[in-house]
Amino acid sequence: MMQHSDAVVDALLSARMLIISPHMDDEILGCGGVMSLHTDKRLLYCMFVTDGAKSPLPLLPWQGRPDTELPKIREREARHALGEIGLPENNLTFLGLSDNGLAWQHQDLMRRLEVEICRIRPTLILVPFRYDQHPDHVAVHRAVRELIRQGRITAQVLEYFVYIRWRLIPGRDIRVMVSAQRLVQVDIASVSEQKRNALGEYRSQTSIMYPWQESPILTDESIRWRCSEPEYFLVSEPGEPLLACFTAKRYRILCAHYAERFGKRRKDQVIALVRWLLRRSPG
Predict the structure, then answer these.
(1) Residue 178 has what DSSP assignment?
(2) Which CATH architecture group holds 5-280?
(3) What 8-state DSSP symbol labels residue 172?
(4) Mean of all residue pLDDT scores within the chain
(5) What pLDDT was estimated at residue 273?
(6) Residue 70 reports pLDDT greater than 50
(7) DSSP assignment letter at 160
């Protein structure tokens, strides 16, 4: 635990705070407990960056197309989820940028983020972890980091974790590779049920909606453990090298990040193809 962790926890629970969420549900997965514990919900703001149009998405092209109503469905779910937490509806912002495409919208992303951050004027901004396993999460983190380094916004930044379990690192939990002096832990046991109820509002992610789905995006097991453990936040230093937060095995972590970030969907597609072929086999 870092030396001034008590002050950081106090800020998490009382400051004028903006949570930047690449997709609808990231905010509850990473910060739902802290939002529930915050003492003045009028000071809480949440910004959704993408339109959420590609989750769920068929793994094989002939299985179907993404539901054209998904952006509306997921925005409605987000409003209900954050209503469960207690955020005023006027404190929600939906930028509507292309899901799974933020890396190609960097300048537009920075411009839109700057406008909204300057409007809200938070003292604390929560962004996804610098090496989260979704490219949209990485793009959001690096856009905010660049805005601060250029002096275009001013705020303390904390990083929250959405993709915690990595198959290719020792212990399979990326947080154990981060310097303990940089992590802040918040016990959310008293609001775990509220976090679970908020996640339950994301029915597009917690249930099987289409015939081609074999499991929901968020399983009961994953929801259970995300709501039963503390939430962790990395104190961010925008001017430092990205790998500086790790205690050891930095280049192994970097390799694992790219392998898992780009390899998971390919692996899932191969598995889906094999299952599809087996179902069609006469034997």
Answers:
(1) B
(2) 3-Layer(aba) Sandwich (3.40)
(3) G
(4) 93
(5) 81
(6) yes
(7) E
Q: Enumerate the domain spans of the chain.
A: 5-280
Which pLDDT tens digit goes with each residue over 148-161? Answer: 999 999 999 999 99
**Which pLDDT belongs to residue 2?**
43
Instruction: Please state, as a whole number, how many other Cβ atoms lie within 10 Å of the Cβ of residue 108.
Output: 14
Q: How far is CA 30 from CA 86, 129, 162, 201, 224, in A?
A: 17, 10, 5, 16, 14
- The kind and range of the H/E element at 106 are helix 106-120
What is the pairing mode between strands 44-50 and 183-186?
Answer: unpaired
Q: Retrieve residue 131's tokens.
A: 């090496």
* Cβ neighbours of residue 212 closer than 8 Å, sequence gap 6 or more: 58, 59, 60, 63, 64
* CA–CA dist 135, 103 (Å, integer): 7
Look up tokens 């290719």; give the residue: 168
d(CA 41, CA 44): 5
Say what the pTM is.
Answer: 0.94
**What confidence tens digit (pLDDT) does each residue in 235-276 have?**
999 999 999 999 989 999 999 998 888 777 777 777 778 777
The residue among 213, 46, 15, 206 whose CA lies nearest residue 117 is: 46
Largest CA distance in the chain: 65
Spatial separation of the C-alpha atoms in residues 249 and 187, rounded to whole Å: 28
